[in-house]
TrEMBL record:
Domain of life: Eukaryota
GO molecular function list: phosphatidylcholine lysophospholipase activity
Protein name: SGNH hydrolase
DNA-binding is among the record's keywords: no
A Pfam match: Lipase_GDSL
Domain CBM10: residue ranges: 292-331, 337-373
Keyword check for NADP: no
Originating organism: Neocallimastix californiae
CDD domains assigned: XynB_like
Signal peptide: 1-19
Alphabetical UniProt keywords: Hydrolase, Repeat, Signal
Gene3D superfamilies: Cellulose docking domain, dockering, SGNH hydrolase
C-alpha cells in the first residue's frame, strides 16, 4: 500500500469515529477532502453559525407544501440550540408556513434533472439541468455552505435515464460542488423517495438509490467529503407521498426534515467530540494504549493505532486507520469493525437485511447502517 506519511486531513475529520457513520443516520468512512478553494468555511465545534444549502428538485423546493422539509429542518436544529443560516440563490431570509418561522434560502428547482438530458426538454415535462442552473448562478461559491443536502434524480427516473448515465451526471455535479465549496465542508447525498406517477416503480427507484450510494461511497473512499444518507428509508413508502403520487405529503416532508436534522446533529456532535479529544491529546492526556497491528504495516514505517482504532481501509497489508493526521495500523482483533466493510460497524444482533452489495448484507441498528456477519 503506497501512502503518504502524513495526510492533510482537517483536524475535525482526522479521527472521527468512522464506524458510527453509516447510511441511514450517517455517511460512510471519512477522509478529509482538501481543495485549493478554502475560503474560510467549515464548521467550528461550537458557537458558530452553520451554513446549510438544500439542493435539488421539487422535493427541495417544497412542491405541495410551502418550505417543504426545509422549515422542519430549520425548526428542529434551532430548537437544539444551533445557529443556522440556510443559504442558496432562491427564497428569502425569513418566511413562515404552518406556524413555523424559518430561513427560506435554498437551491431547489422543480422539474430539474441532474444534468441536461438530450432530447428530453420542457415539452416532456423537464424543466432543466440542476448542474447548469447552479453553475450559471455561481450558487455554491456565492453561498459557501458548510453542509450541502442533495436530493436529486426523481425527474431523471421519469425520463427513463439509465443508471450509468445518472452516475456520470452525479459525478459531474459533485465535482463542480466540491471545487467551489470550502475545504472543510461536506455533501450529504440523499436517496429519493418512492413515487408511482409518470411510470415510477419500486425496483427502478431502488436501483437508482443504489447508484446514489455507490457514487457517494466512491467519493468517500477517495477521501472526498461526500456521504450517503438514506432519505428514502426515513419514509413509509407511498404512505408518506401526497395525492399526486410524486411528492411527499405534509407528514412526509416533516419526516425528511427531522431526518436531516438528525443527520446534521450527529455530524456536528461528532466534530465537537473529536475536537475535545484532540485537545486532550495535545496536553498529553487521553492517550490510548496502542494495539497490536500487522507487521506488514509497521515494517513500512507506520505506527499501530490506539485500541479504539476504527478501520477506514483494508488491503493485503492489513487494516488501516487514521490518528493524529497520519495513517496507522489497526488491530485485526478490533471487534467494532467488519473487515471489508470500509469502517462500518458489524451488526450486534439484527439479521434483517435492508440492502446488499459487494461488501455484504447491510442491516440497521440504532439508526445507522451495519454489516450483518455471515
Amino acid at each position: 500500500m503506497k501512502l503518504l506519511n502524513s495526510i492533510s486531513f482537517v483536524l475535525s475529520f482526522a479521527s472521527l469515529t468512522l464506524a458510527q457513520w453509516g447510511g441511514f443516520g450517517g455517511f460512510g468512512d471519512f477522509g478529509g477532502y482538501n481543495n485549493n478553494n478554502n475560503n474560510g468555511g467549515g464548521v467550528a465545534v461550537s458557537g458558530d453559525t452553520v451554513k446549510i444549502m438544500p439542493v435539488g428538485d421539487s422535493i427541495t423546493f417544497g412542491e405541495g407544501e410551502r418550505g417543504g422539509y426545509r422549515k422542519y429542518l430549520y425548526s428542529a436544529l434551532t430548537q437544539k440550540g444551533y445557529k443556522i443560516d440556510m443559504v442558496g440563490p432562491e427564497g428569502s431570509n425569513s418566511a413562515s408556513a404552518n406556524g413555523i418561522q424559518y430561513d427560506d434560502n435554498n437551491a431547489g428547482y422543480s422539474g430539474f434533472q441532474i444534468k441536461e438530458i438530450p432530447g428530453w426538454g420542457q415539452q416532456q415535462g423537464g424543466e432543466g439541468s440542476l448542474y447548469n442552473k447552479l453553475k450559471s448562478k455561481n450558487a455554491v461559491k456565492q453561498s459557501q455552505p458548510d453542509i450541502i443536502l442533495l436530493i436529486i434524480g426523481t425527474n431523471d427516473m421519469t425520463a427513463n435515464r439509465s443508471m450509468d448515465a445518472c452516475a456520470n451526471d452525479l459525478r459531474a455535479l459533485l465535482d463542480y460542488m466540491l471545487a467551489d465549496m470550502p475545504a472543510n465542508s461536506i455533501i450529504f447525498m440523499g436517496s429519493i423517495p418512492e413515487f408511482t406517477a409518470y411510470g415510477g416503480n419500486a425496483q427502478r427507484i431502488a436501483n437508482y438509490n443504489g447508484t446514489v450510494k455507490k457514487v457517494a461511497d466512491e467519493y468517500a473512499n477517495k477521501g472526498k467529503n461526500v456521504r450517503f444518507a438514506d432519505v428514502h428509508g426515513c419514509l413509509n413508502g407511498m404512505s408518506d407521498i401526497g395525492s399526486d403520487r410524486l411528492h411527499p405529503s405534509g407528514n412526509g416532508y416533516k419526516k425528511i426534515g427531522n431526518f436531516w436534522a438528525g443527520v446534521i446533529d450527529e455530524y456536528l456532535q461528532s466534530i465537537k467530540n473529536d475536537s475535545n479529544n484532540g485537545k486532550e491529546d495535545e496536553t498529553g492526556n487521553g492517550q490510548e494504549e496502542l494495539s497490536a497491528c500487522s507487521s506488514n504495516i509497521t515494517r513500512q514505517g507506520y505506527k499501530c493505532c490506539s485500541k479504539n482504532c476504527v478501520v477506514v481501509y483494508t488491503d493485503n497489508d492489513g487494516t488501516w486507520g487514521v490518528e493524529n493526521e497520519e495513517w496507522c495500523g489497526c488491530s485485526t482483533g478490533n471487534s467494532n469493525v467488519c473487515v471489508g466493510a470500509q469502517g462500518y460497524p458489524c451488526c450486534k444482533s439484527t439479521k434483517q437485511v435492508y440492502y446488499t452489495d459487494d461488501d455484504g448484507s447491510w442491516g440497521i441498528e440504532d439508526g445507522d447502517w451495519c454489516i450483518i456477519r455471515n
